[in-house]
Design goal:
homodimer; magnesium (chains A, B); metal-binding (chains A, B); two-stranded antiparallel ribbon; flat; 16 helices; mainly alpha; about 350 residues; Geranylgeranyl pyrophosphate synthase (chains A, B); Polyprenyl_synt_CS (chains A, B); Isoprenoid_synthase_dom_sf (chains A, B)
């Protein structure tokens, strides 16, 4: 878990995908400026919400669009231009899901800075509203902004310059991703704060549904579909995506507890304070150390509490178990790629995505 | 305001539209049962959310699908079958917006019975959760369910058996409706709880954006578009829809204050308690009676308070003003229809919709 990030964009396949990402940024920029222009006619406040939405979509690593384009170009897609709106749609989907997830998690920050709900909360509090009312206003703005991003994703695909039946297939793919994410989000909601605790398997399923499908599996499949890939290639990128995504989420869990706060921008007491049901916790629940650990969950854990929790999680074997599990999914992804008939450059690209996912430190 | 509802479905155009509404119900039923089947594979809880979503979409008056079909058949659309998914999409859009609006308004009931958030809140409270936590869980479920309904609307239109370019135009129409509703919802959020109060004009604009566009204007235009209507007919149904919708909203405001609770199923102290910024209130704010009225807003008004507020709203002329305004929009709609070159049966249908909108008592 300590090897530095091996490579950065542009990836192995060369310049095409990088050009594609510029096209994606252009598409998103047009989407937001069009929204702002139209909103401006309805009032300054509405244009402000669109501006805030654009900010929410900025600064991301464009992981999902990059995967769409990697699969597309890697499987012989000639011109990235028609693929760009589809790639951009997955970024908008991500923006929407993060906005609504933050409302559900009552988060007002993301990576240390106020998120959209946080910005609107601060503004309302500055106007003299009580903190509770201001928080609700912030969350209301985030619900509305999320709806705009979510429907924007459909609109971008519907308007892409692709054959009509392909657009429909891609909308189905987007829909499957939304369907999975909503199911995962609901499981996450159900797991929090209830006495009966989910099994490790249920926690893994939740995180796969909530994140891995829309972040890895669906973008790769969308790119492959646009390239006119064979059923076999489609299945392989789907399997690889699911395994990479699950490994990514497991590493996320590890970083949330054992990561370097300065690098991750995420407090290592956060998951503890929330009493978040992560794979680490689900494993630890089966161990004799659980009694001591349970005392440290929820409330407002100190740094000492967090350090103690880390020791207990190492002692009971939870850390090693989750590291092994991440490695196991990574191996499955590697095997799927190695045995596949996918073009070499695409295999290299996806291997690079995989290694960055499991070796990242933030 | 006391004439009984003049007519019910089926409307003047005869059986076609009624058949269409049965097709709409069939489309929605398939949408939900497909969702439940797919969700069931991911867990019983998720299938339960889909069931709750189906319940949320049931029992409605199907106003929006009826308008889509009225415009479609009235302008010569031959077969209601391909129009049904588009009509159903506007019902799903309504379901989605109501779900998210209830979260934003912190409502856990609709027409006297628990809404989706209320059902999930009650269940969580029954599992021993605090009322606050249970409320948040209810709202989380409603956010997720709303996302499923919202994206479902796009999916239904994208999958309709219509020419590809027509489907795109209809998706644009849906998108314009979402865009307007989101803008109206944001204005509504901004108007509540802030010291500077919106003008009457701003309140009217808010309610037009939030409801009239997606409920009347867009469904009529969608039906007209599918029938291949002329630009002129498209403009006329749009204008009529906007005016009918605005009149409808004004009547809604009146019923919320002066309606018969037994008929409306809505407490006449509700709008007062929320301190809701309705056209009645926006008008009254300009009058000398305002000082007395302001004392009755917010908090927990009694029936006596509500009766006193009603007297003050009559005394200052707010009631008459809003009644006149509703009548003014109704007249505009009548004029637009009378001067139009729309087929007679469609004009009769829309006049009937209009009269029911302004004469309704619930």
């Amino acid at each position: 878990m300590t090897i530095p990030i091996a490579r950065q964009y542009p990836p192995a396949s060369g310049g095409t995908e990088f050009d594609g990402l510029r096209l994606v940024d252009g598409t998103l920029e047009r989407f937001f400026s069009d929204g702002m222009d139209r909103a401006d006619r309805l009032g300054a406040g509405y244009a402000g919400l669109w501006r805030a939405l654009r900010s929410a979509a900025r600064g991301g690593k464009r992981v999902r669009p990059a995967l769409v384009l990697a699969a597309y170009t890697g499987l012989g897609g000639p011109d990235p231009a028609p693929a760009a709106p589809v790639a951009a749609a997955f970024e908008l989907l991500h923006t929407a899901l993060v906005l609504h997830d933050d409302v559900i998690d009552r988060d007002f920050k993301r990576r240390g800075v106020p998120n959209l709900a946080g910005v609107y909360r601060a503004r309302a509090a500055g106007q003299g509203m009580s903190l509770e009312e201001a928080a609700h206003r912030g969350q209301s703005a985030a619900i509305i902004a999320g709806d705009l991003a979510l429907t924007g994703a459909y609109r971008l695909i519907a308007g892409a310059e692709l054959a009509a039946d392909l657009r429909l297939t891609l909308l189905d793919e987007l829909d499957s991703a939304v369907f999975a994410s909503a199911g995962g989000e609901l499981l996450d909601v159900e797991f929090s704060g209830t006495p009966e605790q989910p099994s490790l398997q249920e926690v893994l399923r939740m995180s796969r549904l909530k994140t891995a499908v829309y972040s890895f599996e669906a973008p790769l499949r969308a790119g492959a579909l646009m390239a006119g890939a064979s059923a076999d290639a489609l299945r392989t990128v789907g399997t690889a995506g699911r395994c990479i995504g699950t490994a990514y989420q497991l590493v996320d869990d590890l970083l949330g507890m054992f990561g370097d706060e300065a690098e991750t921008g995420k407090s290592t007491t956060g998951d503890l304070a929330e009493g978040k049901c992560t794979p680490l916790i689900a494993y630890a629940r089966l161990c004799p150390e659980w009694e001591q650990l349970a005392e440290l969950l929820g409330g407002t854990p100190t740094r000492q509490d967090a350090a103690r929790a880390r020791r207990l999680l190492e002692q009971c074997g939870a850390r090693e178990y989750v590291e092994d599990l991440a490695e196991c999914y990574a191996s499955r992804a590697r095997a799927a790629l190695a045995e596949s008939a996918l073009p070499e450059a695409l295999v290299a690209d996806l291997e690079s995505v995989l290694e960055r996912a499991v070796q990242r430190r933030r």
